[in-house]
Amino acid sequence: MAAISCTPLPKPSQIEIRRAWPIMGTMLTITVWGTDSLEMLSAVQRGHAAVILVDSLMSSYRNTSDVARIARSPESPVRVSKETIHVLLHAREYWGLSGGLFDPTAGPLTTLWKNAIASGTLPARQSIDSARALTGLGQATIDSARQTVRLGKKGMTLDLGGIAKGYALDLARKEMRGTSAGMIDLGGNVLVFGKSPAEDGKWRIGIVHPRDDQRLLGFVTLDSGAVATSGDYENFFVLHGRRYSHLIDVTTGMPSRGVLSASAVAPTGEWSDGMSATLMLMGACAGIRVADSLGTVGAVIVNDPGNGAVTRDHVYLSAKAALLFRFTPAFTER
Description:
With about 325 residues, this protein is α+β, with helices and mostly antiparallel strands.
C-alpha cells in the first residue's frame, strides 16, 4: 500500500531528524522537525518502539504474535492484547461498510491463489469453494470485555496486513506527543502532523501512477492526516501473461478486478489503510458512495481501462478528495 511522501525542506530555525528501519516487511521512516534535538530523538525512538509493538502483536510471520496464536486455536477463545482487539473491531467496521469484501480472514483463498500461480495452473472451482468456506469475519467472535478472539472453525486464519500498518502509524504518533511536526512513512502509508516546514505550512503527499511507478498521478495537500494506497502494481500474481491482484474478493473467491489503485485520505492512519483496501475491493462507484457517506474520508480511485492507458477519465474522486487532490501538470494520457 503506497503513496510517496514529499519531504519539505526545513526552515532555517528548525532542526530536521530522520531515521529509518526495516520492519513489517517494509521500511519505516520517521522524520521530525523542531528545535530540541534531544526531545526529537526521544520522540523518534518512541515512535519506532510503537511500530515494533504492533509488529510483535499482529505479524502473521511471528509464532508468538496474537494473530498466530489465534490461527493455531481457531475454534477456541484466545486472549489477546487490547491493541489487537482495537484493530479487529475496526476491521469489522470496514467489513460491514464493504458488505463483507474487506475480510481479514481471506487467508485460505490468498494461499490457494499463491500456490496455484506458483504451479502455473488456475485453482479449480471446487478448491475455491472449499477455501471460501473457511473465510468470513462474521463467523468470528470478538469479545472486547474478555479480550478474546475466536475465529469459528478449523482451517480459518487471520491476516491484519490490510490495517495493521495504519494502526502502527497512529500508535507511533500517539507515542510521539510533544513533537511539533513530523512525517511517519511505513511502506508508503504516510501520516503527517503539525505544521509542515514548507513555506505555506502544508503537507503534500504524492500518489503514484498505477502503471508507471516513476511518475506521479497527483498530490494530496493536507494540514494533517494520513494517506494510503492499495494497488495491483506492487503485490500481484501473473499467470499466462495475465495480472491478478493480491486482494481476493471473498464473495467470489477470485482476485479483485476493475480497479488499478485506490487511495484513501483520512484523519488517521488506521482509516486510510483500511479504507484503501476497502475502496479497491468495492470498485469506483460503490467506493465513492461509501467515502462520501463517511464525510471524513477522501477517495482517489483509478479504474482499469483494459489496455493500461490511464487517462483522467479513469480517475474517480470523492467529494472530499476533489478538495484535496490535484493532478500533476505532467500527467498525460499515459
